[in-house]
Amino acid sequence: MSDYLDQIDQHNLPKHVAIIMDGNGRWAKQNGRPRVFGHRAGVKSVRTVTEAASRLGIEHLTLYAFSTENWNRPISEVNALMHLLVETVKGEIKALNKNGVRLNAIGDISKLPAKTYKALSEGIEDTKDNKAITLNLALNYSAKWELTEATKAIADKVRKGILEPENITEDHIAEHLATYNIPDPELLIRTSGEHRVSNFLLWQIAYAEFYFTDVFWPDFGAEEFHKAIYQYQQRERRFGKISEQIS
User: Fold this and answer.
1) In the chain, where are the structural domains located?
2) Residue 137 host element (H or E)
3) Burial 92-124 (b: 16+ CB within 10 A, else e)
4) Model confidence pTM above 0.85
């Protein structure tokens, strides 16, 4: 166990942590291997971090697994990622059930290849009764897509006379997002030294704390995760107020 784990306040944990898993390709290059080797190594970090989050008692973990922009990568890499997703979901079901992990997906998953969609749907069904932690995979996801779809749905309600434009609230927008039944993340982690959010959960992270690390995703294990949680706990979350109002 890490030193950071011993310093974590169990009464001040985020309910939801979101992670932009970045650096698989650069990690592979650094090790003289093809990019897909980095993606495979990254799967181990998914398992490790999910288990670490579950042990802490974090309720939701959302991982940015494949963005809508990722379709623009070389077709060989995209195909390898889709195959790896099928392989991983099928291979991890037993462990997910053993550890009480409920699998979920956000994004336009109907556009995934048939085999990928089938494996994912079966994984979601097979783990639906688990209670320890919900693992949300953001697949074929982008925040701009999500907000566009929410806007269309709300506009349709207005057109049908179900909702008046002047009555539209933040709650109405939230109810039409892919995460409508998931609390907003309090902590967003990005690995590999990049400092951007890359079209990820733009509405939901309005008040999230950001944690950036130079560590590539395949090297991001339990200790790094505990460090991120510890750093999160050192921050004062004021939500527009001043320190005296929340102390």
Assistant:
1) 3-142+186-234
2) strand 133-141
3) bbeebeebebbbbbbbebeebeeebbebbeebb
4) yes
Helix, strand or coil, per DSSP, at residue 190: strand
How many whole angstroms separate alpha carbon 148 and alpha carbon 178?
Answer: 11
Q: What percent of the chain has pLDDT over 90?
A: 94
Query: Domain 3-142+186-234 falls in which CATH fold?
Result: Undecaprenyl pyrophosphate synthetase (3.40.1180)
Q: What is the pLDDT of residue 240?
A: 66
Computed on alpha carbons and rounded to an integer, the radius of gyration of the chain in Å comes to 19
Angle formed at CA 138 by CA 137 and CA 142, multiple of 5 degrees: 180
| 128: its two tokens | 């639906």
Q: Measuring CA to CA, which residue among 192, 219, 225, 218 is closest to residue 51?
A: 225
Token representation of residue 19: 């992670």
The answer to whether 85 and 116 are in contact (CB under 8 A) is yes
Cα(67)–Cα(238) distance, rounded to whole angstroms? 31
Query: Does residue 247 carry a pLDDT above 70?
Result: no
CA distance 104 to 35: 26
Positions annotated as catalytic residues are 22, 70
**Per-residue pLDDT reduced to its tens digit, 10-54:** 999 999 999 999 999 999 999 999 999 999 999 999 999 999 999
**Cα–Cα distance for residue pair 99/96, rounded to 1 Å:** 5
